[in-house]
Amino acid sequence: MVDGEIAYLARGVMPVETPSSVLVSSSKYLNNPRLRDWLATILLRKNGPDMPPQAEMWEFLPILESLRDHARIEQMFEDERRVNPLLDAWFKEGFYSTYAIADFKDYAPGTLGGIFHRWITQGDYQIQITPWTAPKTQLEFYNLRSGQTHDFEHILTGGGFNFMGELVPYWYRLTNVFKYIKNPELAAELSVIQIFGSLRYTVRTLLHYPQVWPTAVDCIQRGITVGQASDALFLAKLEDHFHLPLDQARAALGVRSAVDVDTDREGAFWAGRGPLSQTLEPVA
């Protein structure tokens, strides 16, 4: 570089002076040391049995809650409901489930409820991911229903119950919520969990598990496609459709362009639970 020239990529950078002795930013996310440490860890680390990926989100959720402007979010919900009849009707009904795993044992194989029961029992999962409390705010209600429908979104959008399949419902939400929430600021608030959660499966995969990067890309693409093509699944009452065969449940709920792809082998490899051939089969 010639003396006196400024590199193209460095143009426009302005030194910032501040009397503060600690990091100060216009971003509340960058200002938070717990989030900075969490984000660096989940982006850069390799997987290990000492920290299961699901435990990462358990650590993240209280950090996010400490950063949220809850009064602002509630006001945005109120404003949105005045121009979004679908969302307003959903809140007015106020429906949420109290089901247990045993409630699904009599659903026929191949139905939405039957598929859910098979996955939950075979995988030894729990339905209630976080301690249950009755929602007191609109955001709490939204989060409660999101937790109750997440596993069914795996099934309906074609994302398997494995660490690669997780990308499909993540990216369905990141697309579908913005399609049906008119205020992009509110849509972004409702998507923070998904964007941070999905980063674990993108950055870490590329850095440490490139053998399954094509699978990750395919899962992201399939989630986006379903989110763009489908009705507002995140506002649907899935419970009315547990008895239906999967294809009929998808049709009734307006889920379109979902493709079922088996990513169990790739998900297990990503988590360090199984070998993977160096030559992968082409992604369907």
General description of the model:
The protein has 284 residues and is mainly α. It has one domain (28-270). Helix content is 54%, strand content 0%. The chain contains 13 helices and no strands. It has helices at residues 28-31, 33-44, 53-67, 70-83, 85-93, 112-122, 138-157, 167-180, 184-189, 192-208, 213-229, 246-253, 264-270. α2 (33-44) packs antiparallel against α3. It is globular. Mean pLDDT is 91; it is low at 278-284.
List the defining traits of the structure above:
284 residues, single chain, globular, 13 helices, disordered C terminus, mainly alpha
Number of domains: 1
Multimerization state: single chain
Helix content: 40-55%
Globally, the shape reads globular
SSE-based structural type: mainly alpha
**What is the straight-line distance between the termini?**
48 Å
Task: Provide the succession of SSEs.
Answer: HHHHHHHHHHHHH
Q: How many strand segments?
A: 0
What profile does the largest beta sheet have?
Answer: none
pLDDT average, as an integer? 91
Beta-strand portion reads: under 5%
What is the radius of gyration computed over CA atoms, rounded to a whole number of angstroms?
Answer: 21 Å
Number of helices: 13
Point out poorly predicted stretches: 278-284
What's this, in brief?
This protein is mostly helical and 284 residues long. The chain has 13 helices and no strands. It has helices at residues 28-31, 33-44, 53-67, 70-83, 85-93, 112-122, 138-157, 167-180, 184-189, 192-208, 213-229, 246-253, 264-270.
